[in-house]
Design brief:
This protein is an alpha+beta fold. The chain has one domain: Calycin beta-barrel core domain (Lipocalin). It has an 8-stranded antiparallel barrel with strand order 1-2-3-4-5-6-7-8.
Length: 174
């Protein structure tokens, strides 16, 4: 990575964290069973930011590692279902070991972003993940489809955390 990219990412991270100060703290779920949580989660909706704009077939894959951390593999297609598949490999680790619901995720060193599991279906079929700024949020499911009733439950949970549901955009899944 060249020096300009490094400094842009560093400044961007500082701006990102600066937006967190005025918001009330997020309330993560009480407990996440990490082995049960691992696997594929399709990104069904998100608050788009530069990387995720115009993505299709977005998916996060989580895998426990022997060192206690997790692989976080984000794959997507850019511009359409026939776009080339792109993959980003990240690392995640649990910050709150009592709940396993607050993580840090790092796709590019040295930036590690807060990641909170804000809603988790009791059967681990769908979930919501957020960031303290409320500028970033994701709705994910084990399948590429989710009922409107289930989606409404997740949106209501996000709204209770201070999110604006109108900011979320559905991600096209093939």
């Amino acid at each position: 990575m060249d020096r300009i990219s490094f400094w842009l990412l560093l400044v961007g991270g500082m701006v990102l964290f600066g937006g967190c100060a005025a918001k009330p703290p997020l309330k993560a779920v009480d407990y996440v069973d990490l082995p049960r949580f691992m696997g594929d989660w399709w990104v069904l909706a998100h608050i788009p930011y530069w990387l995720e704009r115009d993505t299709y077939d977005s998916k996060d894959t989580y895998r426990l590692r022997p060192d206690g951390k997790m692989d976080n593999i984000f794959s997507y297609r850019k511009g359409g279902f026939d776009g080339p598949e792109k993959v980003m490999n990240g690392i995640a680790w649990v910050v709150d070991k009592k709940s396993n619901a607050e993580w840090r995720v790092q796709f590019l060193w040295p930036i590690a972003l807060p990641y909170y599991v804000l809603y988790l279906d009791p059967d681990y079929r769908f979930m919501a993940v957020g960031h303290p700024s409320r500028d970033y949020g994701w709705v994910m499911a084990r399948d590429k489809r989710m009922s409107e009733a289930d989606y409404a439950v997740v949106m209501k949970a996000l709204e209770a955390q201070g999110y604006d549901p109108a900011q979320f955009r559905k991600v096209p899944q093939s």
